[in-house]
Amino acid sequence: MKLLWLLFSFRGRLDAAGLTPWWALYAVPLFFAGFPEGTTSSGYLIRGELALGYFLLTLVPVAAITTKRLRDAGRPLWLALPACLATPIATIVLLAVQHEDIRPPLAYAAAALALALIAGCVFLMESLRRAPSVRG
Asked: pLDDT category, 29, cuts 50, 70, 90?
């Protein structure tokens, strides 16, 4: 029951120690890199579509965990939006660049933006992991 509350409820607080094990949600897509280099009928890489599907499936749990931690750290809750949407948006942009739906030089700017989104998300989550709890 606590697991369901943790992953699907946006109420309550989550301290820094409770956030640490959930970093694994971001590590799972690394396993997709080992998948074969096949493409789907639409021409996109299979592992890229698997990664996008994974990020979309974990969108609500990541949003719930991030919201609880933001509340516990005394940070504004709107920061959960970029933290949750960064990786799916970045994956879509990188898939479009790979499939040449976006052509250079715009492709380079789009890829840089996608990587900046991911870096910003990692920075936010790491700062939340280190932030002290604010009880009130």
From this structure: low
Going from the C-alpha of 48 to that of each of 2, 21, 105, 110, 120, the distances in angstroms are 32, 25, 22, 16, 21
Write the DSSP assignment of 49-108 as a string of letters. HHHHHHHHHTHHHHHHHHHHHHHHHT--GGGHHHHHHHHHHHHHHHHHHHTTSS-TTHHH
**φ, ψ at 43 (rounded to 5°):** 95, 0
Q: Give CA–CA dist 80/83, Å, rounded.
A: 5
Average pLDDT over residues 87-100: 76
